[in-house]
Amino acid sequence: MSDSSSQLDLSQLAVDRSGPTKKTAIQVRRSWFTKYVLPLGILVGFLSLFGWAARDSFLPAQSITITPVVVSRAEVKQEGTPLFQAAGWIEPRPTPVMASALAAGVIEELLVIEGQHVKQGEPVARLIDADARLALAEARAAHALQVAEVNRAEATLVAAKTNFDQPTELQATLAEAGARLNETEVAISNLPYAIETARARLQLATENVRRKELAGQAISGRALREARADLAAAKNTLAELVAREPKLEAQAKSLREKRDALDAQLRLLTNETRAVAEAKANLAAAQAKLDQTRLRVEAMELQLERMIVRSPIEGCVLSLDARPGQWLSGVGSSSSQGSTAVVGLYDPESLQIRVDVRLEDVPQVQIGQPAQIETAALAAPIEGEVISVTTFADIQKNTLQVKVAISAPPAVIKPEMLGKVTFLAPRSPVVKEEPGDSPLKLFVPQTLVSRGEGSASVWVVDLTAGIAKQKAVEVGRGATESGLVEITNGLQPTDKLIVSGRESVVEGTRVRVSGEDRTLMGGGWNRGTTSPETRTAQANP
After folding, report:
1. Rounded to two decimals, what is the model's pTM?
2. What are the start-end ranges of the H helices in 216-325?
3. Half-sphere exposure for 100 (CA within 13 Å, toward CB)
């Protein structure tokens, strides 16, 4: 044992650390790989994946619309066969009618009771009308006063037109001015003779005074003074006549200008024209105010009329929504206080039943589908027809409301009565199933089928590849009433048919779906299905 241990060479286990080892080289290569190659590879892979996913956005594609294949499982039931039942409540169709107050006021009296039959326009309530009557009297008084104003304006206009047609006052003024001018001109023409006469008298008076002064004491002093007074008078008269001439000339000129102005005024009739225009304007304003007062009277008469609330339809009283003494705001009132509804009405000839249909039965409901309605008030069912499928479901009851019109409702039927509706099998575009046929039926719009020599085909879209494909199909029976044809071979229930854009596509054309077109599906298929489900078909008797 000791001999073998002495022969071991422990120097072979020593490690030479003087130079680089293989492990160090491996670590360097691994560090370069993880720092550069691996991230670059991940980035390239991510970009490739992103490019592949977004290839439809970069590659050109034709925009198309599609429609699904109509799939029906032929559970053959004859038209009129009961499908299911549901309960509901009878109500007016489409809604109750409200008799509302058109004017604000306080209810004085209700004139109807619930269930009473009323005619259209029959009074159902009366409001307190004292204020309305006073307002009407005031409006009528204002109207009468304005009628008098219009009569006055008409009289003024008549006078202005008469004065315009026959301006006698202006003519008289013109004639007077002409006469005064003539008098002045005559005075001017006679003035030289009067001056000559005054000069002769002055000469005689001068001679008379000279002779009496020469006579001396032979004549009395009084005679001399009288002679001298006559001489002074003759001088004054001559001086006055001489001074009158320029005044008469100025007066004649003024009268001539006045005559010419009056003549021009008579020809133009400016004041008379203005008077006629003003009279017409005043009459128009008075008539406008008269119209306002007349409208005010009509408004007050309407206000008084609206103090009586009338029925808008012929029917029965459904509810009394107001009480005597209650304030009504009136239709169109800006006040938010009070209501307008007085009486609720309905037409007994127009009723419907509001039915809660289970969601699993909703696919069997169609607009126009026949139904039978039963109530405790009737010994036999009455006919009805589906007219509406609402859009709001009751989550708690798991139902959807359907409206069924009651055909010729009996008089005993009243709103809010409970009823039970039996939905019957409607007329369907699917034809009768022959023995040996597959229960799964595929239908497509006839316009989408391209026919050739002994062959038919349709264009479908491969949604996975995003391309258009043409499939050869076998067409079954003739078209239904809804324009659908049965495809017996060549299509799958999940296929999507190309509607718009199929004229310009070829095999393999890249396409992009822009929407779904359901307009080619016939009536009753507008809620079309894309997966097999039970539907009702008509069995021709």
Report:
1. 0.50
2. 221-268, 270-305
3. 15
Residues paired with 82 in a beta bridge: 424
Torsion of CA 105, 109, 114, 120, to 10 degrees: -70
**Which two three-digit tokens encode residue 343?**
């009486």
Q: Which fold has domain 64-73+430-537?
A: 2.40.420
Strands 82-92 and 418-424: antiparallel
Q: How many CB atoms lie within 10 A of CB 468?
A: 23
Tokens of 454: 């002994």
**Phi, psi torsion values for 158, nearest 5 degrees:** -60, -45
Q: Buried (b) or exposed (e) across 415-454, using 16+ Cβ within 10 A?
A: bebebbbbbbbbbbbbbebeeeeeeebbbbbbebbeeeee
Tokens describing residue 154: 């008409």
pLDDT by residue, tens only, the chain of 541 residues = 444 444 555 555 555 555 554 444 455 555 666 777 777 778 888 777 766 666 655 567 778 888 887 776 555 556 778 889 999 999 999 899 999 999 999 999 999 999 999 999 999 999 999 999 999 999 999 999 999 999 999 999 999 888 888 888 878 887 888 888 888 888 888 888 888 888 888 888 888 778 777 776 667 777 778 877 888 888 888 888 788 888 888 888 888 888 888 788 778 778 888 888 999 999 999 999 999 999 999 999 999 999 999 999 999 999 999 999 999 987 765 555 667 899 999 999 999 999 999 988 888 888 899 999 999 988 999 999 999 988 878 888 889 999 999 999 998 999 999 999 999 987 655 444 455 455 567 888 888 888 877 788 888 888 777 888 888 888 876 666 567 888 888 888 888 888 887 788 888 888 888 888 767 665 444 333 333 333 333 333 3
- Contact (CB, 8 A) for 450 and 498: no
**CATH 1.10.8.60 correct for 98-127+307-345:** no
Q: What are phi and psi of 159, to 5 degrees?
A: -65, -40
Other CB atoms within 10 Å distance of the CB of residue 206: 15
Residue with token string 């029976």: 477
Amino acid type, 53: A
Cα(331)–Cα(339) distance, integer angstroms: 9
Instruction: Classify domain 80-93+350-424 by CATH number.
Output: 2.40.30.170
